[in-house]
Amino acid sequence: MATKGIILSGMRPTGRLHLGHQSVLNNWVRLQDEYNCFFMVADWHAITTGWEEAKEVYPNTIEMVADWLATGIDPEKSVIFRQSSVLEHAELHLMFSMVTPLSWLERVPTYKDQVQKLGEMGKDINTYGFLGYPLLQAADILVYRANAVPVGEDQLPHIELTREVARRFNYQFKSVFPEPQGIINKEVAVLPGVDGAKMSKSYHNYISIGANAEEIKKNVNQMVTDPARIRKTDPGNPQVCVVHKFHRLYNADLLEGIETECKAGSIGCVACKKQLASSLEDQLSPIRERREQILTKKGYIDEILRAGDEKARAAARQTMEEVRAAIFG
C-alpha cells in the first residue's frame, strides 16, 4: 500500500469565516481521507496584520475551529493545532531567514498589493514580520515535510518560494525537505462579496458560515445586481450579477431556469434574491446547528487543540533534530 502524502494548510483566526472559506473547508474534508493532514490555526500570521487585536486571537480561534468541525473536519483523521503552540515553526523560520535572500521576499506579488490595500484602510504593515510572513509560511509547510499544499492560484508564488527555500537549504546543508506541490482544486469556488469585490473579512462584505436566517436575508438583499436593469420586466444579464454567481454554487440544479427567467425579464431581482436566501438557509442551517452544539460543549475545542498541538510538536521536533544536525553537524 502506498504511503499517504502529507498536507499542511491553515487559516488565520481574524474573525468569522465566510462562504468563501466554506468551499476551502469542503476541499479539506475530501483531502483528509486521502492524505495525512495538518490543519493549522495560523495565530502568528493573524498578528502580522492585526497585532493591535491580538487579544481577539483566542476567541476567534474557538469560533473558527467550531466552523471547521461543523463543516466536517475530523480530529480523528486530521491534526488540528495552533501554530503558536509549536515553537519549532519559529526556529525553522529563523534558520531559513539566515539563508534566504531579501529579494526573494520583496518579489512575492501579494506583499506590495497587501501593503497598498491595507494602507488605504489605515493599517501600517510595513513591518519586518509582514515582509517575512511568506518565509514563515515556508517554515509552516516544511517543518512537517509536507509534500502538498491546497491553494488558490493567487497563492502559487508562495508555494514556489517554499520550493526555492527547500531547494536552497538542501543544497547548502543536507537534503532534509521535499519540494511541495501546490494543489489547485478547480471545484473550490471563488465567490465575490455582496458588493461584487473580493469577499473578505477585511472589507465586511461577506456572509458568514454561521449566519442565521435573518443575517442571510440581509446580506443577500445587499447584493449588487445588473445595473442596467431598471424595471422588473427588463431583460437581465446574469453574467454581471452577484446573485447569479451564488446561484451557480448553491442552486446549480436550477441554474438554467434561473438564467432563462432573468434574461426574459420574467423574474425580478427581489424574487431572485429571495430564492437564493432560501437555498442558503437550507444548506447552512445544518452547519449552524452543529456549530451551536459544538460550542455548548465546554472545553471541547480546547481538548482537540491540545491533542493536536502535541501531535504537531512531535512531528516538528523530529524535523528540527535533522535540521540542526544538517546545519551544525
Automatic annotation (TrEMBL):
- Identification of the protein by name: Tryptophan--tRNA ligase
Classification via Gene3D superfamilies:
HUPs, Tyrosyl-Transfer RNA Synthetase
What GO biological process, any one, is recorded here?
Answer: tryptophanyl-tRNA aminoacylation
- Transmembrane segments annotated in the record for this chain: none
GO-annotated molecular function:
ATP binding; tryptophan-tRNA ligase activity
Q: Which UniProt keywords apply?
A: Aminoacyl-tRNA synthetase, ATP-binding, Ligase, Nucleotide-binding, Protein biosynthesis
Query: Which SUPFAM superfamilies does the UniProt entry name for this protein?
Result: Nucleotidylyl transferase (SSF52374)
Q: Give the Enzyme Commission number.
A: 6.1.1.2
List GO terms (cellular component aspect): cytosol
Against InterPro entries, the record matches this protein to:
aa-tRNA-synth_Ic, Rossmann-like_a/b/a_fold, Trp-tRNA-ligase, Trp-tRNA_synthetase
Per its record, the protein catalyses: tRNA(Trp) + L-tryptophan + ATP = L-tryptophyl-tRNA(Trp) + AMP + diphosphate + H(+)
Q: CDD domains, alphabetically?
A: TrpRS_core (cd00806)
- Which family is this protein grouped under? Belongs to the class-I aminoacyl-tRNA synthetase family.
